[in-house]
Structure formats: C-alpha cells, structure tokens
Design brief:
Pfam families: DUF1611, DUF1611_N. InterPro entries: DgcN-like, DgcN-like_C, DgcN-like_N, P-loop_NTPase. It comes from Ancylobacter crimeensis. This protein is α/β, with parallel strands linked by helices and about 350 residues long. It has two domains: about 120 residues, Rossmann fold, CATH 3.40.50.720; about 200 residues, Rossmann fold (3-Layer(aba) Sandwich). The protein has a six-stranded parallel sheet with strand order 7-8-6-9-10-11, with helices on both faces. Helix 9 links the parallel strand 9 and strand 10. The chain is globular, with a radius of gyration of 20 Å. The two termini are about 35 Å apart.
Length: about 350
Amino acid sequence: MIIHPPYLLFLGDAADELAAKTAHGIADWRPEWCVGQFRLPGCRADLHLPDLTPAEAAAKGARTMIVGVANAGGVLPEHWTREIVAAIEAGFDIASGLHTRLSSRPAIAEAAARHGRALLDIRHSTEHFSTGKGVKRPGLRLLTVGTDCSVGKKYTALTLEKAMRARGMDADFRATGQTGVFISGRGAAIDAVGADFISGAVEWIAPAAAENHWDLVEGQGSLFHPSFAGVSLGLLHGAQPDAFVVCHEPTRRTMRGVAHELPSIAEVIALTIRCGRLTNPAIRPFGIAVNTQHLGEDEARRLLETTARELELPATDPVRFGVEAIVDRLAEAFPASVGK
C-alpha cells in the first residue's frame, strides 16, 4: 500500500486520548506529515494540531485522511460514514487501521469509485503468512511486552531504535500494529492475522538477519489480558526475542476494557520467560519502561528508582527520561552489536 502524505488525522468522537492512540502515534513520530486534525462534537482527544475540515485541510495540501482511532473491536461507527464520504468528495484518499474495511460501507465504496480515490485498510495485509516454525534464526531481537494494552510498547521500541542507532548499533523497529505500520511504512497488524499464522507472520516481519543486527519488535496486548493474550503469546513465540523490555502504566488498577486487575511487573517477567523459552531458551529481561505521564517528575523518579532496585533492572520512562540505561545493558551483554 502507498499512503500519500501530508495527512489529515480524523479523531471522530473519540472517548479519550487512548482511543486516538493511532493518531497520537503518527503525530508524535511523523509530525512533518500532519497538517491538522478533524474532530466531531464530543471528541475528548486532542493532538494539539489545527482543527480543520476536510476542505480546509485539502487547501493546505493534505492528501490522505487517516482514521486515527483505535477502539475496542476496531469497528467503524455508522455515523462516521458521512464524514468519510465528505472527505473523499474533498479529494482525499482514506486510510484506516480498523478491523472494519472501509469498502464494506457501500456509501464509502461508491464515493471512492466515483471520485477515483483510494481506500487503504492497513490492518488487512495482502501477504499470505505461513505457520511459525520456531527454528532459531540469525540476528538479535528485542520484544516489548506489557502489563496491559496501551502502556507504551510501540513508543518504547521506537525510542530504543533511535537510541541504539545513535550508539552505532544496527537496529530496526518492526511494526506489528496499524499505528506502527503508519509510522514505519512496513509491517503487519498481527491482531488481524488468523490465529494459526500469528507466529509465522512475526517470523516474516523480523526474518533472519545479520548476526549483530537488532530487530525491535513492537509488542501487542499482554499475556495476562483475557481479551488479547492469544495475540501476545503468538507474537512472543514468533519474535524469538533474545531480550525483552516490560512496559507498564502505574496508575491503572484494572486492565483496559475489562475488570481484571493488572499483573505485577515481576509476574510479567516470569511468564514471559516461561513461555518465551519455547522458541528461545536464552530469553531474558533487560529493562522496565514505565509510562509516568500522570505523575509529577519527583514522584516519577522515585517510582523508577524503587522499581529498578526491586527488580534489579534499569527502569525509565522512555519518552520523559530516555532509554540510555537499557541500551547500556544491551551493549554490555551483546558487545559485538555495538558499532566501532
């Protein structure tokens, strides 16, 4: 798929900031591509971009409107159809990471055909994946895992990519979700892959590589989440990670979308090692990434210090404080992967 920037990011009537995490990810990592945001009444998300109608955004040069919402089940609400059709009529291609295909709505499909505009369903790959083989392949891999959904796994992997490259390490972010694909321009949305092929799809996303090359695989969901653990487990087996980083949001008490309590970081480490050993017996943790956006700086630093001491691992907020301590640990354990 070819997605033409610049973008207008459609937030619909997102219930909160996390519901617009796709748009937030694009705006944070590809700000030069983002002309503005298009919000409906009642929207509670804000990218702090100019609020524009499709006509206004088209006049500023935007070419693609991206549906930037990631809701439960990846559904396309019926009342968004009219707004998407209006954007097509204003000259936009439409790209979406939802499970519902844009073309499944007759009004959208008809408008796109009439105006010669593209409908791009990023979540639905055209690749035919094999089942996973679980055979150790060359190269080094790091997987971000979580205590819950939407805790910073993608941001942690992207921040690690940037820091590792600055250190002279050969590292590439590997997208496994729709937002990551929008950001990197490659990858596949693992949660839209048939269950039998999840691990095989991850083997395709992060294939055999040079001995000291790092693939930084974006994690999804949580092994403890009753809705998404199957995706998380298949991803873990396909990634065959040599290293993993646990991502956590400390202010939550229940997992997103369900009533289950969050597991502890220690529980996530133990289960990740136990399950991950199936395809890589050498798997081990290298750090903790804590999303401290809801904490003051002093409180955040105290929490990170306590977490690092209790778990004997580097603990940081990647966005707020960087990931240098985690990269130091990786460089020490895999010195050949550090550039000269």
